[in-house]
Amino acid sequence: MLHILYIIAITAEAMTAALSAGRRDMDWVGVCIIAWVTALGGGTVRNVLFGHYPMSWVEHPEYLVITAVAALLAAFIASIMTKLKKLFLYLDALGLVVFTIIGCQVGQQMHLPYLIVLFSGMITGCAGGVLRDVLCNEVPFLFRKEIYASAAIVTGAVYIGIEHFHGSEMLATVLAAIIGLTLRLLSIRFEWHMPKFVYRDEWH
């Protein structure tokens, strides 16, 4: 089930990434690269940091094909996607929790400390979007007021907590996904935001 959700998530992430590339007037190659970075970048950053190989897209090159096709499709149906913005926000929230749980599982397989397992989950869930925004010359979505990284942290904490107290992996996965997804969707619905730090004074 988690693998099916992962395929859905990377497909949706690639399609929304294509629109970001389109807003920067990128060519087809650029669209595909932004899609790959967004959909697969979180796991890639995690693997590089923790020395976990092979990369998922090296072991499963079909992920590159799936995300490229999804991105190019999005470029052709961009006007339709605009009308489905809310749906893709929900799919993005799903991707966040799925990527986070997978990242936590990878950290556990490597027998990392709990805090680093949580960090592994957050990186997997969030880093792809950060890379997308940097490459598209935007302030990363993660660093703005949205409850995004916080939702990833909550998802990972619930997953790790249940596993620590010897709950089944299935129970940990389901509850973490439900709680993390609920938090992210509620933050979208009610426009919950993290406090912002605003500083305008010059130092010279």
UniProtKB/TrEMBL annotation:
A Gene Ontology CC term for this entry?
Answer: plasma membrane
- Tell me the membrane topology, using the record's own terms: Multi-pass membrane protein
**Keywords from the UniProt entry:** Cell membrane, Membrane, Transmembrane, Transmembrane helix
- InterPro entries according to UniProt: Gly_transporter
Localization (cell): Cell membrane
Which part of the chain is the Glycine transporter domain? 4-77, 90-162
Q: Does the keyword Membrane apply?
A: yes
Give the transmembrane region(s). 28-51, 63-80, 87-108, 114-135, 147-165, 171-190
Location, primary (coarse class)? membrane
Similarity annotation: Belongs to the UPF0126 family.
Would you tell me the protein name for this molecule?
Uncharacterized membrane protein YeiH
